Amino acid sequence: MYNKNHNRLLLGGGIAVCLLIAVTSLCLGNVHFTPVQLISLFRGQGDKVSRSILLYARLPRTLASLAAGAGLAVSGAVLQNVLANRLASPGIIGVNAGAGLGVTLCCAAGALSGLAVSCAAFGGSLITVLFIFLFSHRTNASKTTVILGGVALNSILNAVCESVTVLDTDVAMLSIDFRVGGFSAVSYMRLLPAAGLIALALAVLFTLCNELDVVTLGDETAQGVGLRVGRYRMLFLVLAALLAGAAVSFAGLLGFVGLIVPHFVRRFTGNESGRLLPMCAVAGAGFVTLCDMAARLLFAPYELPVGILMSVVGGPVFLYMLIRHKGGHAG
Fold first, then answer.
1. Per residue in 82-98, is it b (16+ CB within 10 Å) or e — as a string?
2. pTM of the model
């Protein structure tokens, strides 16, 4: 059903749409640019104010939305495959909240560099995803129980994070934008280290698609073909945590990206990771950039945090999927 030509056409079309969204995001705002003006500004021509708007406000914001969307979408797809649950995603099972707690504690300690924040976010997300994995493995929990346990853990981590911000008003001021999720305050200093980690994790995952497919088939099948299931499952969980943590470190607590995008993409690519993961990266990048652009423009001159917009869209989609899949099983 899914031949190579179909996959190349689908991926090429997705990349083209994603690039179109990115260029439109660079062009539109309080100050509009045409594509021709964009080229001139990138070449160093035009007035200084326009170049500053493009290079230091709109470009990092667009790059951040592309990187965050790709990272969160692929992280969600990997978690769904490894945990064998279509309702798993970084935002729902607490991975984003763990990364958020890591960033909050990092800010409370006074470490505000981009690399320190990225490492703290990765550490928090990794601890969370390992806890979910151990919980599901040791208790032999059902798919529904894993999701509900993740929701409970998400609430606990958010409560701890809120407690820290209440006790330290300086951290509260730093984390307001972070908690709702958005790109209005993104900077190259915070973006570049995290984007490098996202690119590294994606590159590793794209080379391990066959192994991910085998792990998805179950322990007995994987062991039958000689795959060390435990090691690869742990590696995929670490990479998923790295993607989510790096994205959260500069994007804040964006919800539902890792749930909606893989669910949508699977309709066109099927479940094979070699097709699913690259398309999730492209679709996630375009989706988050489109949502951020809508959040900037719909209520201009005011701006709605993109995290709020995604929650409004993602909440009903999650309820629909919960009913359709009945706790993770295909309906």
1. bbbbbbbbbbbbbbbbb
2. 0.88
